[in-house]
Amino acid sequence: MKTIQRISVLVLAAAAFTTMVGCASTATKESTGQYVDDTAITAKVKAAIFNEPTLKSAEVNVETYKRVVQLSGFVSSQADIQKATTVARGVEGVASVKNDMRMKQ
């Protein structure tokens, strides 16, 4: 009976360890919590850009990875690029902003 209990405890410990390691982040992979946080940051940045009347939000794409926001897309002017970057930096939770937006020719 003691052997069965020991085996059961070992199996449960191994399952718990596997679950913890499976949800941990690595240099190239977000943890589950980071993914949820990044999704929320992306939504907040998109909303902030949408609510900015001088920007056409459909032309600005937003992605977030480990609290770093990447903006891409095409805008009409350098001022729009600067405004979108400023708006994104103002969102709570954003660590930094990478700007990959381009001006329309």
Anisotropy-based shape: rod-shaped
Strand order of the largest sheet: 1-2-3
Sequence stretches where pLDDT stays below 50 over 5 or more residues: none
The CATH class of the domain at 31-103 is: Alpha Beta
Order of secondary-structure elements = HHEEHE
- CATH fold name of the domain at 31-103: Histidine-containing Protein, Chain: A
Helical amount? 40-55%
Q: What separation lies between the terminal Cα atoms? A: 78 Å
CATH architecture assignment of the domain at 31-103: 2-Layer Sandwich
Mean pLDDT: 83
Question: How many DSSP H or I helices?
Answer: 3
Which structural class should the secondary elements be placed in?
A: alpha+beta
Largest sheet: 3 strands, mixed
Strand content: 15-25%
E-strand count: 3
The Cα radius of gyration reads 21 Å
Provide a descriptive summary of the structure in words.
- By secondary structure, this protein is an alpha+beta fold.
- The protein has a domain at 31-103: Histidine-containing Protein, Chain: A, CATH 3.30.1340.
- Helices cover 50% and strands 21% of the residues.
- The chain is built from three helices and three strands; from the N terminus they run ααββαβ.
- The chain has helices spanning 2-22, 32-50, 78-89; strands at 60-65, 68-75, 96-103.
- Strands 1-2-3 form a three-stranded mixed beta sheet.
- A hairpin with a 2-residue loop joins β1 and β2 (68-75).
- The radius of gyration is 21 Å and the shape is rod-shaped.
- The model has no long low-confidence stretch (mean pLDDT 83).
- Keywords: Signal.
- This is Osmotically-inducible protein OsmY.
- Residues 37-105 form the BON domain.
- InterPro entries: BON_dom (IPR007055), Lipoprotein_DolP (IPR051686), Transpt-assoc_nodulatn_dom_bac (IPR014004).
